[in-house]
Amino acid sequence: MKDSTGFEPSDWAFCGIFGAAALLLPAVFHVLHLGQVFLPMYLPLFALAFVVRPFPCGLTALLVPLLSAVLTGMPPLYPPVAWMMAAELAMTTFATAWIAHRFPHWNPVLYLLPVLILGRFLNAAFHYAAATVMNLPAGFVAGLSFLSAWPGVLLILLSIPPLSRILRRYRPARAIVPRGGDAR
Prior knowledge:
The chain has eight helices and no strands. It is an all-alpha fold and about 180 residues long.
């Protein structure tokens, strides 16, 4: 049963749980100075893509970096890392959730890898634009952004597919039905 927003109550619950994990996990990684390299906020948000529909997943991924920036100062609002991260995460987790729910029997690695690569390019493009506006060496900043997070991409590729199989046991993927389509 959906509420007035079109979300199911379980969507709200899952978004809250995984969103809280995305707020707390970076604190552990940042204590060890591993936050930028291993993308700890990304892990729960990409896992969320396997249990809720694309819109709630993308919305949660958009809000969590901004909320974290306000509550903890990380990622920073200026330079606009939080804004860039929010946009990248919203787009990539939305795409992951859409594919995961549209094609539930596909191996997650088949679509996580291209989505994560796209995310790295988006991140680099956002950093290039921000560096240009701030009169920094845009190519260097974008290149560093593109290269620095590959250990995190590898961590996501190693951890999310097995986790998605576990999550799907408890919350089977609901197929996304095109408008006017039959849900049979």
